[in-house]
Amino acid sequence: MRHTDLACSPTRAATSIRHLGVLLAAALAPILIGIALRSTWPVHLVALGAPAAAAAVAWRRGARLSRRETALLAVAALACLPSGPLFGAWTFLGGAGAVLLLRSRGLGLSWWVRRRWWVTALAVAAAGGVLAGINVASARASGVAPEVGGPVLGLLGTARAGLSEEIGMRLFLLACALVVLGRRPSTRGQEVLTYLVLVVPHAAMHFQSFEGLVAGTIALAAVFGMPLAWLMKRFGVLAAVVAHTLIDAVRFLALGG
């Protein structure tokens, strides 16, 4: 950041940090309400309603999806349909809402880094491989095998998790954070809060009760959420999707379905 930016931006930076804090609280609210009510409908309502509303507002402002983006999101949504229509809708609306929201504010989106693609591939393989090993070890330690509905649905489910959670949730949260900031994070405080927005709600979503919620969320966010969020911010959306899918696919294959 230039010296002039440092001289004139403290108020704006503080305001942006407050806004990111509000965004984090808003993302956590339906999850906590759902746990309190022992229901998933608050999360489902916000997961579908928020990106749909954002997409509608951005559409009215003239933002449009390209044919390639529409096709990509449609394929991702179709891949999620075997797990239920909710996941397909969540993936498409979250991705469309993110793209349109960013485009309406003049901000770009990287699906995949084209230059030095092999660096991206190595980063995805390394992160995905290490996290897959941790995932398998924790699953074996817990002794709880997931109910996947057979080998076909199990493999499709590994793709569904990577697509719906990374595109439907994390990408949309990243778009909201960038819109709040009006640009990429430029201070350490903004960077930290942006990562918290990307990892904390996603981690908290995996728990159904308040027992162990805080410790579990911190552990899940630190071990899995941060690397996946870093991949998305550094190498693009598809990097996070592929790594997430690899993590779940290795676990599924190791546990034998």
Q: Radius of gyration in whole Å, from Cα?
A: 18 Å
Order of H and E elements: HHHHHHHHHH
- In whole angstroms, the N-to-C terminal distance is 50 Å
Class by SSE composition? mainly alpha
Low-pLDDT regions: 1-8
Summarize the structure.
With 257 residues, the protein is an all-alpha fold. The protein contains ten helices and no strands. It is globular, with a radius of gyration of 18 Å.
Structure overview:
The chain is an all-alpha fold. The chain has one domain (16-255). The chain is built from 10 helices and no strands. The chain has helices spanning 3-8, 10-37, 41-60, 67-80, 85-104, 117-142, 151-181, 188-204, 213-235, 237-255.
Summarize the topology.
Layout: H1 3-8, H2 10-37, H3 41-60, H4 67-80, H5 85-104, H6 117-142, H7 151-181, H8 188-204, H9 213-235, H10 237-255
Main attributes of the structure:
single chain, 257 residues, mainly alpha, 0% strand, globular
